[in-house]
Amino acid sequence: MPRKKKNTASLRLHMLSIFIGFFITLGFLYYVYPYHNFSVEAAPIYNLQIVTPREQIRNGGEVQFSINMAQYKAGEEMEVGVKYDGRKLRLDSVEGGEVGQVAWNEIPSAEGEKRFVITANPLGQTYDAEVRFALVRFTITDTTGETNSDGRGFTELCTLFNPDTVQPTDPVENPTQDPVVQPTSVPTENSDSDIPPPQGGQVVTPTYPPQPTRLPTQNFDQLCVPLNVRGSSGDKLDIVVIPAHFSPEQYDIFLQYAQAAVDDLIKTNLTDYDEEIVNKMNWYAFNNTVYNNRTLSFDEAFYDIGMNQKPCAADRFLVIEHSSPEEVEGWAFLYVGGMVTTGALQVYNPIAAHEWGHFVGGFNDEYDEGGESEELPNCTYDGGSLSSRQDPCPEDQPLCPDDQMPAENRIACPKWDCNQRECTPLEQLMYQDVGCYPRCYNSDGFRPRPKSIMDTQTIGAPDNFVFHGPALVHLIQEVFANYR
Questions:
Q1: Alpha-carbon distances of 51 from 25, 30, 223, 420, rounded to whole Å
Q2: What is the pLDDT of residues 191-226, one digit of tens each?
Q3: In the listed set 328, 359, 390, which residue is the last one of a domain according to the structure?
Q4: Contact between 268 and 353 (Cβ < 8 Å)
Q5: Residue 216 burial (CB count, 10 A)
Q6: CA-based nearest residue to 136, from 165, 95, 99, 104
Q7: Contact criterion met (CB below 8 Å) for 368 and 37
Q8: Could you give the CA distance from residue 263 to residue 286 in angstroms, rounded to a whole number?
Q9: Beta strand 113-120 with 78-85: parallel, antiparallel or unpaired?
Q10: pTM value?
């Protein structure tokens, strides 16, 4: 059946404490892909980057964001919107960067949300390379738990938006606002009904390893833009990234998002396995400007091109759908292909890498999605001698140290227990910290670790960036075994 990962970034948040949870959350911002891109046609490209060192981030302390600008043409207007969570941050100052002085204007916002627009006078010179447009300083004032009645919810700390559709108030020279503390939650997740299911209903999950039907691609060098190519197509697992809802004029912007999707794997522990996994992949970007020079709909990109044509002789594909920053979505077919929105590539959780786990690794979701029972590499339905069905590490709990897990849960399920089955040397090494934890794709399954990248993306959970031992074994021994 299809493995549809709906709204991967429906992030579940349960902080151990306000101080510790928020420290960890902002700490991740420093480590992972830090850019939030925003652009409009015939305007500069802006991105947002956190610049405060991780060790200096603390509740009550300062955090700084740099707004950078590129592809500025002399005489163009400079204007960008900034949105932040007023329950977590207090705006202290907005300073001009390399472009000179800037002005900023508050605009009406939803409860708990704060928005303002930064502008500057047109310049007489062109900036193709990236320069700092403004530096924004905040004080961290977080006092929230930020979950709704279902235990879900997430609000971006600070993002950029298109200010064209709103009217700013009078310019504000110096901020004097008091902290807005509203401990009530602001749910921002999208329901499953927001995402259309794959066409054609259910399909049979291919038996591993799948044999892709490679159709000849004309003008390979023009249609397939290298993103990260490490060798011959015949020796590597080839992945093509396809744009949806990007106009031909926005192709350069799409390439930035495509590279961000590739870089999403850098956030994870796969970087410890370059020789065994990472270096055995080639990544290409599909060039729709050469293909038909028009905007591709999602159905064209995913079904017609990704699933049927298999451009760039690709073994797998990923569609990036242009969206607003608020649309944080992703889903995938096992061993075939997946999709993420541009909104999903603007958050710091590794959503694209999670979907990669589906369409490359063939892994199940490890949270309770209510799906049908199915033995897959990271889930089992044999709990062995485990006596309790109680999950010692609930989905909304970010930190689950091994020494705080019950002893019986730290004993591997029979599927991963080398005392009960014959294991390869790699399995013996990788299964050393494996246990048996209730919940994996449904309430009947068992997963090998309390948390992993295939589990709920919970803010403050470092293991959300980790492929556990059984996943790595499957990737090394099965998925990438025949690639070089």
A1: 15, 8, 37, 50
A2: 333 333 332 222 333 333 333 333 344 466 688 999
A3: 359
A4: yes
A5: 7
A6: 95
A7: no
A8: 17
A9: antiparallel
A10: 0.60
